[in-house]
């Protein structure tokens, strides 16, 4: 499931508002691979560690039923609030080794920015159990979205700033070790399934500085700092925002965000 780090109601709301949706090409790649392994129509998909539902919603057009699972009641409540699809169901579950899903009933299992929170020996046998023959598992994630403009030197400055403040000097000690699995683009994870392969995607999206700061505030390491020292946490974000404005030379810049996504897929 999504780590308990994301369980608080306020954090869940921030997560729902600012976390990115997966790229359309990534979702298309999953469905095209599923079509090779199983014949449509597809009955059921399960999104494990669904958080606030961004990764669950995108599956809705392709399945009769989509089920989002998460350990956090707050995240599930947020997902339900934003859900407009009749074929999506959200459930809270804390039993990693006993998912509330019937055996051999699922066409597709997805993990979006969540697989690194699980122990393979606990979750993979469950995925094997619930997948139908040739059913597909797709685990994907993303690394830090970075603002870019049409000036190389300024882009490099922003990149260094984000890396320094939010990953090394200021928040480094607040990150859980699982975060470094994400930083490695899941290269240390091996799926015990057939025909495992890896894909990479890049997503470009328009944003504002305000929304980007909101995204940074959704990080688990930052939320740990908020709980420990709210004033220092606020000062940290304010300082980053002022430095980005100084680099860009604008008070309310429009940003293009570049986000690297990575994925591992295989089948039962």
From TrEMBL:
Occurrences of domain Methyltransferase type (ranges): 46-138
Pfam families hit by this protein: Methyltransf_11
Keyword Transferase recorded: yes
Superkingdom assignment: Eukaryota
Annotated GO MF terms: S-adenosylmethionine-dependent methyltransferase activity
Matches recorded under InterPro entries: Diverse_substrate_MTase, Methyltransf_11, SAM-dependent_MTases_sf
SUPFAM superfamilies cross-referenced by the UniProt entry: S-adenosyl-L-methionine-dependent methyltransferases
BP term (GO), one: methylation
Keywords carried by this UniProt record: Methyltransferase, Transferase
PANTHER family: METHYLTRANSF_11 DOMAIN-CONTAINING PROTEIN, METHYLTRANSFERASE TYPE 11 DOMAIN-CONTAINING PROTEIN
Family stated for the protein in its record: Belongs to the methyltransferase superfamily.
Protein name per UniProt: Methyltransferase DDB_G0268948
